[in-house]
Amino acid sequence: MWSPRRSGTWPTSALRALEVLRAVDVVCAEDTRTTRNLLRHHGIAGRLRAVHAHNEARAAREIVDLLAEGRDVALVSDAGTPGISDPGALVVAAVRTAGFAVVPVPGASALAAMLSVSGLQGPFAFVGFLPARSVARRSALDAWRRFPHALVVYEAPHRIVDCVVDLAGVLGGRRRIVIGRELTKHFESVHECALAAAAEWLSSDPDRQRGEFVLVVSAAPPGGEGAREAVPAEARRVLAVLLAELPVRSAVRLAAEITRAPRNALYAIALEQRRAGS
Q1: Cβ pair 172, 226 in contact under 8 A
Q2: pTM of the model
Q3: What is the per-residue pLDDT across 31-61, written as a single tens digit (0 to 9) for each?
Q4: Among 8, 63, 274, 276, which is most buried by a count of CB atoms within 10 Å?
Q5: What is the Cα–Cα distance from 67 to 5, expressed in whole angstroms?
């Protein structure tokens, strides 16, 4: 996005963003090192300033001052869209409050890209990043448990397995999940499965846990039944006994054979129990 001093009509092609970056006086970036490489690649000698989560309030005031001096300012983020789980909302609010125009310059968006390939019909709710700790994450998810529409979640690679375990535990393992990884980038991948199977799928290959993730979880079913109702208490007891003696995969396989409970749901429960006991 950018805040212009001059009026005019910009090209509607994909080159619009480059035109804006060439035209403005200052480019504000989440990471100036990354943006400097981008500008250098396209032959743009931009004046850079850092705007990130730790300085956004102060940077917003500085940007307003620049605009008051008659400068044009662009705001970019590393691999997303300013203001959408990235810094930028405070800047936009301050600029608009000061009476200056804010113009969006659409580019690659993991949110829009994921929804377009999810195969799930809207409406959608954008949850963004959930809390990092499991207790807080589960509490936040509980508020969405009976929400009648699909949910869109962002997640970091080092938390992705724990996140899908909590999603299955709170929302129910029978829902569908579409896992988007590194969208619009070189190693992009999209995978759909039952929510109860997501942790096992991710854990079976370390490469599947690399990169930035966008998750789309299908809407709550009528009645809001969850994973706990899908696995009988006796199956949970058998699984707990086996987990005391065996690795997760072996315990889940035997528990499924003995109780006929869904293997994917048992796997999600096993990961949850192992993590709670660690």
Answers
A1: yes
A2: 0.73
A3: 999 999 989 999 998 799 999 989 999 999 9
A4: 63
A5: 7
